[in-house]
Amino acid sequence: MRKLIALFMLAGIMFVPVFANAQDAPADTAATEEVTPAPEPAASPTIVDDEIVAEEQSFHQVIKEKFIEGDPLYMTPVLICLILGLAIALERIISLNLATTNTKKLILKVEDALSTGGIEAAKDITRNTKGPVASIFTQGLMRYSEGIEMVEKSIIAYGSVEMGRLEKGLVWISLFISLAPMLGFMGTVIGMIAAFDAIEAAGDISPSLVAGGIKIALLTTVAGLIVAIILQLFYNYLVSKIDSLVNDMEDASISLVDVLVKHKLTGK
């Protein structure tokens, strides 16, 4: 019985505040509607939206703001260096990847063609294969009738030509790597000159006078260094790719000469 009474008392204690709040809620709502003016509820979402916009500012917008703050007159040449350098680098990457050939597979095809159809069959294989290695093979096979020594000389000479083609465009990337920091430093010097001119004209040193020139100087320098770093990464990748292709060309050329010597000795 005591437990039952205690449960009723506990239930009453829990539900009395709920009923009191339910009864007071309409009165509070009415009082709030009478006292609170209409424009105030619309004020808080506006502040929240501004804060959200400030927090969700994209990377693209930040770069755009810094570009404008750094003065487009000095930032535009640096941007042009980046665009042209990346365009040449991407073109070179695509070309070098297309120039990559499975040299071991090509050697086996040439050897089988020599065994079955002779030099002309081997020429057809190399002519229908893309890449500098196949081009070198074609030049070597064309001189087969003049002897192995002429084949070697032809391979070496044409290998130099193909190597020059692989390195095409690297000089321009190297130019932009050097030019971008120079343009950035030029903006730095011009910005500092503008800052000192402002100090001289005002006859007083104050942060507001020199801040603009120093900001231009720092932003143009940073932009030039970033462009040089990005292009340097692409340049090093291209150099390593070219070195790999040249090594493949040299190994494949030695293998071709061995195959031709073997073919000549067997007389097939």
From TrEMBL:
Keywords: Cell membrane, Membrane, Protein transport, Signal, Transmembrane, Transmembrane helix, Transport. Residues 130-250 form the MotA/TolQ/ExbB proton channel domain. The keyword Protein transport applies. Its main location: membrane. The chain crosses the membrane at residues 74-94, 170-196, 216-239. Pfam families: MotA_ExbB. Residues 1-22 form the signal peptide. GO terms for cellular component: plasma membrane. InterPro entries: ExbB/TolQ_transport (IPR050790), MotA_ExbB_proton_chnl (IPR002898). The keyword Membrane applies. It is a multi-pass membrane protein. GO terms for biological process: protein import. It is found in: Cell membrane; Membrane. PANTHER family: BIOPOLYMER TRANSPORT PROTEIN EXBB, PROTEIN TOLQ. Belongs to the exbB/tolQ family. This is Biopolymer transport protein ExbB. It comes from Algoriphagus boritolerans DSM 17298 = JCM 18970. The lineage of its organism: Bacteria, Pseudomonadati, Bacteroidota, Cytophagia, Cytophagales.
